[in-house]
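Section 5.1 Outputs to date
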Amino acid sequence: MSVIPYGRQSITLEDIDCVVEILKSDFLTQGPKVLEFEKNFADYVEAKYAVAVSNGTAALHLCAMALDIKEGDKVITTPITFVASANGFRYCGAEITFCDIDPQSYLLDLDKLEDLLKKHPKGYYKAIIPVDFAGYPIHAEKLKQLAKTYGCRIVEDACHAPGAYFKDSEGKIQRSGNGNFSDLTVFSFHPVKHIATGEGGMISTNNEDLYKKLCLYRTHGITKDHELLEENHGGWYYEMHELGYNYRLSDIQAALGVSQLKKAEKNITIRNAIAQKYDKAFANHSKIKTPHRDDNIEHAFHLYIIQIENRKGLFDYLRVHNIFSQVLYIPAHYMPYYKKQGWKKGDFPIAEAYYEKCLALPMFPTLRDEEQEYVIEKVLEFLG
C-alpha cells in the first residue's frame, strides 16, 4: 500500500483549468476573482460579508486588530488548537488565558468558561476565541449569551469547520461563520483543509464596520475610497490611514478557491460517510474511543480523532505500514513560549488527558475504500 496521509488536498482538472484561466488573464492579484470568491464564500456560510486574506493566521491577526485589541488586553481560548489561535492576538499584545476543554467534544468547555468569567468584572476579558476543533461546531448561541453577560467579543476559529452547523434553541440551523452569534469567524484554506488554495484564509462577519476595518488593514491600511480621503488629487491618489499589512489573497489562489467551494457540500457528505465507516469498525472495541457528536450538530470532520491508551505504539505501528496518522494538537500551554507566560503542565487536566491518547486517522474525501479498510485492518491488528 502506498503512503496514506492523515489529510490530503483534492485537485481536479476543473480546479486546474480555473487556475490556468487566471494565469492567462490580465490579473494575477488584486483582480475580480478575489471579490467573486468572497461573495461565493459569504453566500456559502450565510454571512453578509467575507474578506479573503493570505492565511488563517493573518485572519486571526486582522480580527484582533479590528476589535482594537491592545497591549495587556486579556482574551480566552482553548489549549487544544494550533498555536495560531492564540498567536494572532499576541501579535497585538494581548495576554492569553487558556480554558480547559469538554471531555466529549474537545471544544472549549462553556461551563468552565463561565466559571472563569465570573471571577472577574464585566469587560475584564476583551474577547473569546473558541475553536471548532476537528470540525465540531461550538454552540455559539450559548457562547454569545455568556459573552454578552460578561462584555466579551467572539472570534470563532472555524478553520476546521466550513459547512458545519448546530441547531439553535428554536431548532434553526446555524452555520459556522454566519455571523448570527460570533462577531467574526475565521477559516483556513491550507491544503489539508476542506477548501484548498495552497495558503489562504477568510473572515466572515455581519458587522459592516468590522468588515471595512478588515478590508483596510489587509492592504497596508491604504484606501482609495473618495469618502474617506482627506484630500484628492486625481484617479491615482490614495492615502494610508492605519498601519496595516500585506495580507492579500491572489487571484490565482481565489480561482482555486472558487472551484473548490463548488465541491464543499459533496465533500462534507463524503467525510461523514468515512467517519461512519470508522465508527462502525471500532464500535465493539473498548480500547478505542471514537469521536462524539450530538444529534443537533453537523460535524465537518476535518479530522477523525480516536483516543487510545498506547497512542505512541499505534502511531509507530501505522507508520511502519505507510499510514501517516497525526497527533493534533500538542496543548498550546506546553509550548516553551507560553510556558514563559506562566502556564505549566497540570493547568488543564482534561486537555492534557486528551493529548496523551489522541490520534487523527486518515480523513479526506479522496480516501479510497480499500485505503480506509487497510487503515482499519492495521488499527485492529495492532490491538490484537
